[in-house]
Each structure stands twice: as structure tokens, then as C-alpha cells.
Amino acid sequence: MRASLLQIAVDEGESIDSRREHVASLVREQAGADLVVLPELWTTGAFAFESFGAEAEPLEGPTFEVMAKAASDAGVWLHAGSIPERDPEGPLYNTSLVFSPAGELAVAYRKIHRFGFDKGEAVLMGAGAELVTVRLPETVVGLATCYDLRFPELFRGLVDAGAETLVIPAGWPERRRAHWTLLARARAVENQAFVLACGTAGTHAGVPQAGHSIVVDPWGEVLAEAGSGEGVLSVEFDPAKVGTTRGQFPVLRDRVLGVERPHG
């Protein structure tokens, strides 16, 4: 299976319409890949909090339309990163979109863990409430977004739902890049799954981005890692390695659940 992670630079001087067309052209260039992944909030910038309300769009808005066509043109499964979604009956959400090679929406995932510690995304956006997986021909993909990476129980829930490959778009800051790579490898090892983590480049509202998109196998080995600038990280991997790893080292069957807390 071939995956291409598109590490997009968010240029604050570029219009969102221009960026959409640029990203769509990059997606089309990945024809022949099985899966293409974009970063979190690449239309606005993950730290451009003041833009979320003004730039929020319906689920089936401009980004949906452009990305659906790009997926269809390239004939790829496309995880189109995330957008600030405006729900007409509720708050804003940080919502990921996954399209089939026919350009049809396969699933949408609203980010569960919002970053900001009582400011920024944490107060401007609502929290998702559902774990989401999608079955590709080669593997079952579990969806998470950026700050979700710090919460292992979410990923264990995805594995319980059948996930074998964990896809994580992000707008992760450079100052915590060491955590990005450490946590990506940890999530792969503890869940015996592939991790495809796609970050952004450039600067979001004055916050330098980490870049360093990364692909990790079920043993925690890094198969590929990008640098800090915009670029495409392509990698071949064998989804069957998940089953092999879980069979050779069956740690997941030894989980102990429901342990009571001590009293007193």
C-alpha cells in the first residue's frame, strides 16, 4: 500500500481559495497512491483562532467540493485533513473529511480533544463525541486529530473498533516537536498499528509549525519522516504486518480491564 502525506505550508498572505487549488493540484499529482493525507486546519492555520468563525464552512462547503473532485480526479482515498465546520444547528467543529476514490464522502470525524486550556480551540469549537473508523480495501483506518494524540484511550477505542492504521492530521507547534515524534511512536507500539501522522509547515498566527510528518510501523520503527518545510512524504507499507505483529507478540490479549481503585 502506498500513502502520501502532504505537509502543507500555510502562508498567511495567500487566500484560502488559492490554497485550496494549490492543495488540490498536489492531490492530483498523487495519482497511483492508495491513500493521501492532508494536515489539520490547513485552510486557516491551526493557531489562527480569530479566523475560525469567519472562515468556517458547512460540511459540504467549498473545501468539501474541491477535495471531493481532487480525490476523484486522482482516483485515491483522500483524508482531506480538517476544516473549521459550521454546524447550522450547533457550534463550530474541527472536522476531518475522508473521500473515496469516487469522490464520495466516506466518513467525517469531529475532533474530540480540543486544544487550548480554556482558550482558543477549546472554547471556540465544540467537542466531537464519536470514534470513527473507515474500511479501505487494504486496511481499517482509525481517525484522530492533533491534540487527540496525547490521549491513548482514544486510540485503544479505535483499535477495539477494528483499526489497524491510525491517521492523525495535525497543526503541531515546533516547540513541542519532540512530543510529536515520541507520541506517534508510542501510539504505534502500544496499539500494534501503523501510524500516519501528517503535520503542517510554515507559521500559523505567529506559531512556527513542527512539520516532520511521520509514518511508523507496528513495532515503532520509523518508516519515513519529513523535514520542516512543505513537501510530500510517500511511503510503501504492508498492512498485513499489523496482523503478523499482533500474532507474534500478542500483548493486546493480556489487557486487564475494570480494575477497581483502592478504597481509603
If helices are DSSP runs of H or I spanning 4 or more residues, what is the number of helices? Answer: 7
Mean pLDDT: 96
Question: Taking Cα atoms only, what radius of gyration do you get, to the nearest Å?
Answer: 18 Å
List the secondary-structure elements in sequence, H or E.
Answer: EEHEHHEEEHEEHEHEEEEEEH
**How much of the sequence is in beta strands?**
25-35%
Structural class: alpha/beta
Commentary on this structure:
The chain is α/β, with parallel strands linked by helices and 264 residues long. It has one domain: Nitrilase/N-carbamoyl-D-aminoacid amidohydrolase (4-Layer Sandwich). It has seven helices and 15 strands. Strands 6-5-4-3-1-15 form a six-stranded mixed β-sheet. A six-stranded mixed β-sheet has the order 7-8-9-10-13-14, covered by helices on one side. β9, α6 and β10 form a beta-alpha-beta unit. α1 packs parallel to α3. The longest helix is centred in the last third of the chain and has 15 residues. The protein is globular and about 50 Å long.
